[in-house]
Design brief:
single chain, alpha/beta, D-amino Acid Aminotransferase, Chain A, domain 1, 6-stranded mixed β-sheet, 5-stranded antiparallel β-sheet, 15 strands, about 35% helix
Length: about 350
């Protein structure tokens, strides 16, 4: 069962035997989380602090052996994964069919929906979420699948307003898929490389909100983003400016001295409603949203990206979110209580 793991060749974590895992479940009511992750993801996610504290409170992370049939391993309460490829998707779907008592984070077909930026944000647009706490939408966007020379005409016909953010159409987690460009003038649009998505750039005070969602748990952090573009700058600048993975490369903005109108987090009730509806529409429990607030409009927000199983465990609070949010089947109510204990314990720790 050797699968695609982004060409990582280093030796993975040791696995536990079926008997020893079963013994832990029966004798100590451990929550057994089987994980199938790339070595890079293991390094960024499974920090010793997370593993140690989780184990002390009854949550055990166990590596899935990719060289053995998945059904021969475990038993697991949760399967946590972030591998790619058709073979792995088929294995997981079969496992979900034959092991309905196990929570799989998340269904492979649901994850695939986020790999295409054309469909990724459609569910947000379809929601047209608006209440007393604010409005959530998506920037106007246009998909270009081929022929860069046709982009200026397509933009004109669609009525999009410059500057435009260009993102690769495929969002597969690779470094390239997170690159973006900012096009200032119509002529420079021809320099872009399809397939891509063009989004109208919305001034947002240079700050975006990363909203991490794990089950019903939500954690919000601030990140520096692209600065606002004034009309004067737009008239003086031309060309395409390329940027790396902006929100990950940027420093945290949580402790920065920001204008309160920029720094204010989105209203919690609005985020809870958005997260609940997206969980239902996407069929996912483990994802994050990149959200911006339109500068000068306190209650107007845009979702600009959605990622599955995102980010490094940088903030201690994000570690808590992972632990607290792991969903288990109804039979395991005491296990949920254990998870709550871990969450409270982690609140006392500092990175």
């Amino acid at each position: 069962m050797r699968l695609n793991d982004d060409n990582d060749e280093e030796e993975g974590p040791k696995t536990m035997s079926h008997c020893s895992i079963g013994h832990l479940q029966q004798e100590k009511s451990f929550v057994i989380v089987g994980y199938a992750l790339t070595s890079k993801k293991v390094e960024s996610f499974l920090k010793p602090k997370l593993e140690g504290l989780a184990r002390n409170k009854g949550i055990l992370f166990v590596a899935i052996d990719q060289n053995r049939p998945l059904s021969d391993q475990g038993p697991f309460d949760i399967v946590l994964h972030k591998l790619t490829g058709k073979e792995w998707r088929q294995i997981l779907e079969e496992y979900r069919r034959t092991h309905p008592e196990v929570t799989v984070l998340d269904p492979p077909d649901a994850i695939q929906h986020l790999h295409n930026r054309q469909s990724m944000l459609q569910c947000v647009a379809d929601m047209n979420l608006s209440d007393t706490y604010g409005k959530v939408g998506v920037p106007r966007q246009l998909v270009i699948k081929r022929d860069s020379s046709s982009i200026p005409d397509a933009v004109t016909k669609a009525g999009l307003i410059l500057p435009l953010v260009a993102k690769p159409l495929v969002a597969d987690g690779s470094a390239k898929s997170h690159e973006l460009s900012l096009a200032y003038d119509e002529y420079s649009l021809q320099k872009l490389e399809p397939p891509l998505v063009l989004q109208e750039f919305v001034n947002h005070g240079g700050v975006l909100f990363k909203v991490y969602i794990v089950g019903e748990a939500i954690k919000v952090v601030r990140r520096f983003s692209l600065p606002d573009v004034t009309k004067r700058e737009l008239s003086k600048n031309a060309g395409v400016f390329r940027f790396p993975r902006v929100s990950c490369a940027a420093a945290s903005a949580d402790d920065a001295d920001l204008d309160p109108s920029v720094a204010e987090l989105p209203p919690r009730p609005l985020l809870e409603r958005l997260a609940k509806e997206l969980r239902r529409r996407l069929g996912l429990r483990l994802f994050n949203l990149d959200i911006i607030r339109e500068h000068g409009r306190r209650d107007h927000f845009y979702v600009i990206d959605i990622n599955y199983f995102p980010g490094k465990v940088r903030e201690n609070a994000w570690v808590r979110t992972y632990i607290y949010g792991f969903p288990v089947k109804p039979r395991a109510k005491p296990i949920q209580e254990k998870i709550g204990i871990v969450s409270k314990l982690l609140e006392t720790l500092k990175n």
